[in-house]
Amino acid sequence: MPHSRLFSVFCLFIIGIFLSLGTWQLVRKQEKERFISDLHAARKAPAQDADKVKAVRSPSSLFAKGQFLPDKTITLSTKTHKGKVGVYVLSVFQTQGGKYILIQRGWAQAPMLQSPLGFLTLEGIGRLPSPPTYFQPENVPPTYFWVDLFLLSKEFKLPLEPYYIVLKTSMESRLLATDAFPLPSNNHLQYALTWYSLAFILVGMLLYGRKKSLQKEPM
pLDDT tens across 163-172, in order? Predict the structure, then answer.
């Protein structure tokens, strides 16, 4: 009998975990829906002048006027585009208002360290850097795998803005435009149903086992 009770407690614990995971997936579903909605709105919204924006909400449609700074370009390694491995090319842009903004110019098969010259008007999506995933290597200048604006500010000796801009269109034939935020999949409802189903199945097994146990007990 003690073993049966211990097993029942264990099953209830697992059922609680399954229900919690299912509920968490529903929360993630709502968050993903809001994010996708915000992304669609940012893509359709008129671009704002980066020099006049005090705080950037990610994602935001922005434009900037100014010029690229020479020798202020990095590449993010091991970035894929249509099945090919290459790099993202990012350069520092100084706006008319004196801001320093990191610009993701596009994807290339090989590093391109020279940036366009002259006065330019750029338009793209402003985004806040995402923290590195567990599987991303550490940035060791001059090799970068993810955007670290704090580290880049120290390397370039410039007060970079706390966001960067991904250009909507490529300005150079050797660069292919990259999507600031590729629309993510939203499969969290299916995941939630899976966890809830597992909890339901385990409840059924527990009740069935309890019924069998009561039938075996002497009257």
Answer: 999 998 888 8
